Amino acid sequence: MPELAAPATRHYGLDWLRIGAFALLIVYHVAMVFAPWPWVVKWPETFPALIVPMALLTPWRIPLLFVVSGFATRKLLSRTPDLAGFVHARSMRLLVPLAFAVLVLLPPELWVRVRLAGDPEGLATYWLGDYWSPFVHYGRAFPNWEHMWFVVYLWAYTMVLAAMIARVGIARIDRWFAPLTIGRRLVWLPIAALAGMKIALMFVVPETQGLFSDWTGHSAYLPLFVFGFVLGGTPALWQAIAHGWRAALAIALACAVVVTWVELAYQGSTLPGHAVMALDRAARLGMAWGVILALLRLADMRLNRDHPWRARLAEAVFPAYIVHHPVLVVLAWLAPGWGLGPVAGFVFLLGATALACWGAYAAGRRIAWLAPLIGLAPRRAASPRAMVSGAGGSC
User: Fold this and answer.
1) Collapsed DSSP state (helix, strand, coil) of residue 308
2) Which of 42, 45, 242, 369 has the highest count of CB atoms within 10 angstroms of its CB?
3) Sign of torsion, CA 209 211 213 217?
4) b/e 187-208 (16+ beta carbons within 10 angstroms → b)
5) Nearest 5 degrees, angle CA 14-CA 220-CA 143?
6) pLDDT-derived band of residue 381, with 50, 70 and 90 as boundaries?
7) Peptide bond into 372 cis (omega under 30)
């Protein structure tokens, strides 16, 4: 039996970081309705002014979520009696909401997609028929994870991590990251490694989402997830962050200039050459790593304190993630026909999506059978703190 992580106190700063990251994700997705880039549903008018602010968010928002999820996974493992129990608990916590989303939440969103592609069928006909087809139907085929790809990846990475723990133990995994605590290696070595892997793969395999095809994504997301796991039990890494976060932030700012330049110089269908594309991918990873280290320092120094709303907001994150995307897609498809201008449309979409997320969370807290379907702990975990502790690494 491999050794498990020693119990540790809760880091409130990482809770706040996770809450903020997912709140930002909802705002980002609403903004994508109005940004010039392709997305599920577009507003009749798009706004190039959104390119720069969204280009400054895109490189680090998903990598940060994997780091925070890895950290929370370490804390969850420390409260589980054995590795097999941990694997079972995480599988139930992630795969049950995934199944519920595929069965109930995603069909209306996918129906909007095929309707926009020309499918004349109604929702009920599509839901009971072509939604389940493994053959491409107006550009879609089953299964299609949509935004739940993150949950699929997180479950897969958790299983990989569990296999690593069973094979070599947590102590050895922690030692793999020990060289990062020497000097300023934490600042530059991960950027070199992640960018090197990305560039080595990007011209060989496609950059596309898919559990068995997204090797360029896995080459960054999985190491970041494992780093977050190790960070949860390695005080020396926090010390290295304290020493190097300013340099990391400087690197992030320099990389942000490159990322912004590429986005502005190559808009629409204009593609950069291989050299510029490689530079852009390296700059995105450099920016992501620098921002992550700076935010971890912020979480450790300024945000590591409790608040009456912290537990409830942290608990609401996973239900909000599950619900927000299909609600936003359907509303963004309908809202332009209601005569709303772009400003009113943005406010409406953001407010209505947030309200739907909070409504789903409130319903899950009160309806026992609904709770596990949207990522909440079973109601028998009576206290909010106990429920939140179990949900910490859900997404």
Assistant:
1) coil
2) 42
3) positive
4) bbebbeebbebbbebbeeeeee
5) 95
6) very low
7) no
Give Cβ neighbours of residue 338 (< 8 Å, ≥ 6 apart). none
Pair 233, 74: CB distance under 8 Å: yes
Q: Where does the pLDDT of residue 382 fall: very low under 50, low under 70, confident under 90, or very high at 90 and above?
A: very low
pLDDT reading at 379 higher than 80: no
Cα–Cα distance between 298 and 305 in angstroms, integer? 12
Question: Do the beta carbons of residue 161 and residue 226 sit within 8 Å?
Answer: yes
Let me know the angle formed at the C-alpha of 140 by 40 and 130, rounded to the nearest 5 degrees.
120
**Cβ neighbours, 10 Å, residue 256:** 21
What are 140's strand-pairing partners? 137
Using the 8-state DSSP alphabet, how is residue 9 labeled? -
Measure the CA angle with vertex 337, ends 332 and 342; round to 5°: 60
Determine the straight-line distance between the first and last CA of the chain, rounded to whole angstroms: 27
Closest CA to 394 of 82, 92, 69, 147: 69
pLDDT in tens, 252-279: 999 999 999 999 999 888 889 999 999 9
- Does residue 125 contact residue 132 with C-beta atoms inside 8 Å? no
Q: How many residues does the chain have?
A: 395
Contacts of 362 (CB under 8 A, 6+ apart): none
Residue whose structure tokens are 């291989």: 274
The CB-based long-range contact list for 59-62 (8 Å cut-off, 24+ gap) reads 59/255, 59/259, 59/283, 59/284, 59/285, 59/287, 59/288, 59/291, 60/252, 60/287, 60/288, 60/291, 60/292, 61/21, 61/24, 61/25, 61/28, 62/150, 62/221
Cα-to-chain-centroid distance, residue 236:
26
Amino acid (1-letter code) at residue 231: L
Angle separating helix axes 83-100 and 384-391, nearest 10 degrees: 90
Type of residue at 324: H
Helix, strand, coil shares, percent, the chain, to 5: 75, 0, 25
pTM for the predicted model, two decimal places: 0.93
Read off the amino acid at residue 325.
Answer: H
By CB neighbour count within 10 A (0-12 exposed, 13-18 middle, 19+ buried), where does 2 fall?
Answer: middle
Q: Tokens 């971890």 correspond to what residue? A: 296
Main-chain dihedrals φ then ψ at residue 374, nearest 5 degrees: -110, 20
DSSP secondary structure letter of residue 378: P
**Contact criterion met (CB below 8 Å) for 300 and 235:** no
Distance CA 286, CA 248 (A): 9
Contacts for 175 with CB less than 8 Å, ≥ 6 apart:
none
